[in-house]
Structures are given as structure tokens and as C-alpha cells.
Amino acid sequence: MNQQTITKIVTFMMLFLFLPIHFVAAQQPAYAEWSKIAVEETVKQFPDQKVVDYLYEGKVVISDKREQYTFKLMLESAAGEKKPVRAYVLVNPKNNKLIDVHVDET
Q1: Is the domain defined by 32-105 classed in CATH 3.10.450.390?
Q2: Which residues contact 100 (CB under 8 A, 6 or more apart)?
């Protein structure tokens, strides 16, 4: 290798050594923890069925102390019959605490 090639390699290596590298962590959406609770509560209420799909339908701000997250879940029985349900997760955004969970067949 000649001197010019070595200089280019060293310069290239130094460039990466001193450049700040920022790793962007994948941030979970705000509803992620509430979707887990919606699924858990649905499984409790329908123990003979499994959750095969779910969809986050949105958040409704009821007051400064109440927000409702709505999820549509698809359940499937051992026989393959599917049943849609909705789970409503009510939370207090001030302290990020669960208030109530309600599951309805749709």
C-alpha cells in the first residue's frame, strides 16, 4: 500500500470515530400499555377463546382526569368461529393509572 491509500483509510476511520452516532430507539405508542390490559381483560372474560387480532380505534378525552382508549379485538373459538369484541380502557392521565376496563361483544 502506498502512503496516499493509508492516509485515506486512516482519515475514513477517524471520521467514523469522531462523528456522533445517534441511535433512535423505537418508541412505543401511548396506547401500548393499555392495549396489553385490554387483551388481558378480554382473555379473562372469554377464557375459551383466543385473541387472533386487535385494532386500536382511538382515544377519547372525557375530562382532564379521564381518557378512554378503545380497542377492537377478534376472538376465535377452538371450532374456528370468530367473534368481534370491543374493549374500553378508562385511565387517569394525570397519574397514568387504570380506572376501569369494560369489554362488550359487538
Answers
A1: yes
A2: 89, 90
